[in-house]
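quick one: S-adenosylmethionine bound model?
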Amino acid sequence: MDKNELILSSKLKLRQSNLNEQLADNLYKCLFNCNNQIITIDMIEEYNKKLTKIIKGEPIQYVISNANFYGYDLQVNNDVLIPRFETEELVYYTLKYIKSIFNNKISIVDIGTGSGAIAITLKKEMPELVVYATDISDKAITVAQKNASALNADITFLSGDMLKPLENKKFDVIISNPPYLKKEQEIEKVVIDNEPIMALYGGIDGLKYYKKILKGAKKVLKKRSLICLEISEEIKEGIEKIIIKYFNSSRYEFKKDMSGRTRMLFIFNNIE
Ligand SMILES: C[S@@+](CC[C@H](N)C(=O)[O-])C[C@H]1O[C@@H](n2cnc3c(N)ncnc32)[C@H](O)[C@@H]1O
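yep, here:
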């Protein structure tokens, strides 16, 4: 088979796999990433393997080891959650609030950083921020460190349970997208089969990590500070009770995402 025949046969296979033509073309570009180079038999085999995984339902981001977040390319594998669109909105509003609230050099910590998506984006978008990121999973930290280094983002990574690695430190902002599914909550099979369980579940009621963060937050926050959390609509009421317990005199705001679901919480600690 010559090069043209190989290209044609690989494109045909994609088309025959019940994908529409445009999706087939895009997948072909993602999988091969080799517009003008010679395609070898090994590459076709590799491509076939990847195609089979996609057809079986594995998320394409894991298959091509890449996810785009806020315009930045991140390496992902099964040790980290694939960063989601909603989280881009959390980052967007966090940047907006930071710019309007603080005028000095501020420090921020991303709790449960996973691929590093939030921490890296914040640092790239506002290089003057001092950024820390934590995770309990050393494998996740390894992925996040590689992503930060590939994107030239200077971030301090710490390994450990929630706020524990931050003892004796004080931040202006905490941001987190903690695991928040309820223990018995049904979710798509593709998520359960592929994404790390420790990135998904937040105890019986989905509130375990919000309790931990909000209970300990004041110890690692400066007097005037901001907390930015991704949440799910189902646990909004439960979270409100935790806010009243630990931040009863602070103003707070739930925000909806672009599809109209309540997905973000901002707590303004000693900020009017
Ligand atoms: C929902 S994922 C979010 C990942 C990433 N921040 C994002 O938004 O794409 C939650 C992350 O919290 C981490 N995690 C779970 N339990 C933790 C704990 N006790 N302490 C710190 N991180 C934890 C998981 O390893 C996972 O990376």
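The pocket of S-adenosylmethionine is lined by residues 81, 83, 87, 112-115, 117-118, 134-137, 140, 161-162, 177-179, 198-199 (CB under 6 Å).
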